[in-house]
Structure formats: structure tokens, C-alpha cells
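Input (structure):
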């Protein structure tokens, strides 16, 4: 009968995650020889080479890339079955990264619902721009990140899309100025080039009136001056005015949110991914109800 050994698949995914057999052995608490044997068993099973061994690192072959996709799905389904039938509880620490303006939506759910469901899993949170988080994942400095995808070089698993809108403080009309004064995140923010490109295409003149790396700074600037910004629709405070094409503001493309990781061999990481999908993907509780701030 044709069957796949989940232990061998876990070893294979761990090597892909870590980029080395040594790192995979440490992650799985096995000997390097045991990990090598598990991968060799899979290569013999498929009669395909799954990794190219380089000087300091191993990389997936085309066959390995194809198997990785299925191996991750198989392990995730196995986790769900074990958790459902045996009340299995993952444990350990997860190094999680996200932009600071994501904390408003993901933070409460992680602190409350996820911690209640998995009390033996600790979360170490790191905040940075999405491009920085991608590099941190790839350098194995963090285990998993919630990012805004770069439309030119998308990475990760998409699990949410958010409409962006122009917004201003109540009782202010900065959109009527000949030169628009903007409050934006600095270079590195993936929404910023889209905003400026849309204004240029629409023939609207602009200047950066205020720049801040924190969402609190952007909110303060909008509330205090004649500036405007772009936020996801669900993130706009209820008393702020939303602007559209009727007043000459260009339509904006949606933001695409993704989960990015190389650590799917770890049970705790896979459970966190499942939690994020269940809590925040399309069909879950409307994200607008969570006061989310998605911009970076």
C-alpha cells in the first residue's frame, strides 16, 4: 500500500525550515544521522533527490518544493486530528513578528483565545515593517510573521484582504487644498508607494506633512492638523470622514495579509497558523469589529 511516514515528513519539513540537517536535528531533538536517514527514506521512496547540498546550506530541489507543499498540509491535518481526538497540547515558545499596527487586532486574540487554548505555548513578539519581518523569518530570527504582501514579490500564505480608504479628521477639509498634506508611514511601508502612485496618476499634487513609524503618531497627526492619510476601511475611527472619488481622491488597491514562516515542522507554529486562519480569514468574525489597524 502507498503510505507516507509522518515522522519522515516532519524531518523533511524541518530540514527545509532550517536550511540544514544540523539545525533540523536540534529543532526535533534528534541526532543528525536520524534526520538524514528519514530524508533518505523519502528520497528512496520517491526515487527523487529532495535537497541540493551546498557548502553551508541545503536547498530544495524542484521535487522537494512540490513535496513540501503536500508535507505541510499532511502534518497540519495530522495535528488537527490528534488535537481533536486526544486533546493534545503543543508547547514551547513561538517568536512571532508583526507590524505594531497589527497588534490592535491580533494582540487581544493571541493573549486571550490562543493562550487559553494552548496554555503551554509562550509568544515572544517582535514588531517591524513587513519587509524587515520577511528577512527575520528567512534568517530564522523569528518563527512566523504576519505581513502585508509586497504585490511585486508576494511571500507567505494569504489569509485576509483589506480595502484601503482615504480619511481625515472630522470638521476638517484638507482634501480641498491645492497641494494635499499627507500623514504617512516612512519609506519601507508597503502602502506608501501605492498611495503616492495613485495621487500622481490622478493628477493630485501632494507633500508629506508628517511621517511616523507608529500608528499612534499617524492618528495624532490626523486628529491635530489639516492632513489626510489612507487606512484600511475597518481601521478608520468612527468619527473620521472617509473620502472617495466624488471629492477627487483616487481609488486604492486592497492590502493583502499573509502568514510567512519556514517553521511549519513545529507543532506550536502550525497551531498558531491554524488559529490565525480560523480567527481572521474571510468567513471569520468581521475584521471591522476588531478595530484592526493594517497599514505597514
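Output (sequence):
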Amino acid at each position: 500500500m502507498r503510505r507516507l511516514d509522518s515522522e519522515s515528513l516532519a524531518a523533511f519539513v524541518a530540514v527545509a525550515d532550517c536550511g540544514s540537517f544540523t539545525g533540523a536535528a536540534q529543532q526535533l531533538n534528534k541526532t543528525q544521522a536520524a534526520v538524514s536517514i528519514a530524508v533518505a527514506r523519502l528520497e528512496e521512496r520517491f526515487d527523487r533527490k529532495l535537497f541540493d547540498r551546498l557548502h553551508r546550506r541545503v536547498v530544495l530541489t524542484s521535487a522537494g518544493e512540490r513535496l513540501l507543499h503536500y508535507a505541510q498540509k499532511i502534518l497540519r491535518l495530522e495535528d488537527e486530528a490528534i488535537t481533536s481526538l486526544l486533546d493534545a497540547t503543543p508547547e514551547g515558545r513561538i517568536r512571532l513578528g508583526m507590524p505594531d499596527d497589527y497588534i490592535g487586532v491580533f494582540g487581544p486574540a493571541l493573549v486571550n483565545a490562543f493562550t487559553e487554548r494552548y496554555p503551554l505555548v509562550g509568544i515572544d513578539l517582535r514588531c517591524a515593517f513587513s519587509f524587515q519581518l520577511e528577512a527575520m523569518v528567512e534568517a530564522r530570527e523569528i518563527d512566523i510573521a504576519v505581513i502585508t504582501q509586497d504585490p511585486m514579490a508576494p511571500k507567505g500564505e494569504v489569509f485576509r484582504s483589506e480595502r484601503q480608504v482615504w480619511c481625515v479628521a472630522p470638521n476638517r477639509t484638507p482634501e480641498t487644498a491645492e497641494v494635499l498634506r499627507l500623514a504617512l508611514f516612512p519609506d519601507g511601508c508597503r502602502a506608501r508607494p501605492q498611495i503616492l502612485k495613485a495621487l500622481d496618476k490622478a493628477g493630485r499634487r501632494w507633500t508629506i506633512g508628517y511621517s511616523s513609524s507608529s500608528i499612534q503618531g499617524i492618528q495624532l497627526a490626523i486628529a491635530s492638523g489639516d492632513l489626510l492619510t489612507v487606512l484600511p476601511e475597518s481601521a478608520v475611527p468612527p468619527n473620521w470622514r472617509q473620502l472617495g472619488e466624488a471629492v477627487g481622491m483616487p481609488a486604492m488597491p486592497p492590502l493583502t495579509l499573509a502568514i510567512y514562516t519556514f517553521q511549519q515542522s513545529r507543532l506550536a507554529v502550525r497551531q498558531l497558523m491554524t488559529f490565525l486562519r480560523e480567527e481572521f480569514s474571510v468567513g471569520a468574525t468581521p475584521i471591522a469589529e476588531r478595530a484592526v489597524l493594517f497599514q505597514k
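Notes: Residues 6-86 form a domain with the Arc Repressor Mutant, subunit A fold (CATH 1.10.10.10). The chain has a mean pLDDT of 84.
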